[in-house]
UniProtKB/TrEMBL annotation:
PANTHER family per UniProt: ACETYLTRANSFERASE, GNAT FAMILY, N-ACETYLTRANSFERASE ACA1
Protein name: Putative acetyltransferase
The species this protein was found in: Streptomyces sparsogenes DSM 40356
Annotated GO MF terms: acyltransferase activity, transferring groups other than amino-acyl groups
Alphabetical UniProt keywords: Transferase
SUPFAM superfamilies listed in its UniProt record: Acyl-CoA N-acyltransferases (Nat)
Coiled coil: none
Domain N-acetyltransferase: 1-159
Presence of the UniProt keyword Transferase in the record: yes
Amino acid sequence: MLIREATARDWPAIWPFFHEIVAAGETFTYPLDLGREQGRDWWLLAPPNRTVVAVDEAGTVLGTAKMNNNHMGNGAHIASASYMVDPAHSGRGVGRALCQYSLDWARAAGFRRMQFNAVVETNAHAVRLYRSLGFEVLGTLPEGFRHPTEGYVGLHIMHRAL
């Protein structure tokens, strides 16, 4: 698997699984009816932030990540990131590779820590992955997320030093 900078030409390959994940309403705090253009504008970040894709040998997009400063001004030394893996390619280590890539990017870019602001507590796979990479739950906002089948569940704030 190769992880490379995403371009606007990658959006047609990202959009189908991006839309599926967002519309499912289980893991992201995005509007369920987020449109294609607005989704592109939110996901494909301009430098110094970064969006990447993970592709296989044939060039098929397996997943994507966006990496950015979590805050501005005097909080700009804290990074954040978001990840989406095409469900057709889950279980192949794509999410782990993207997360590790974002940690390396943040460290090289001079960030001191990485923080995830809204990890849905019922997203057990993501929570387990982040913990295995050294993240810890700093706190949980009770009922911070309205899950479509689980009801109101907590949103974890997760963090790790770089």
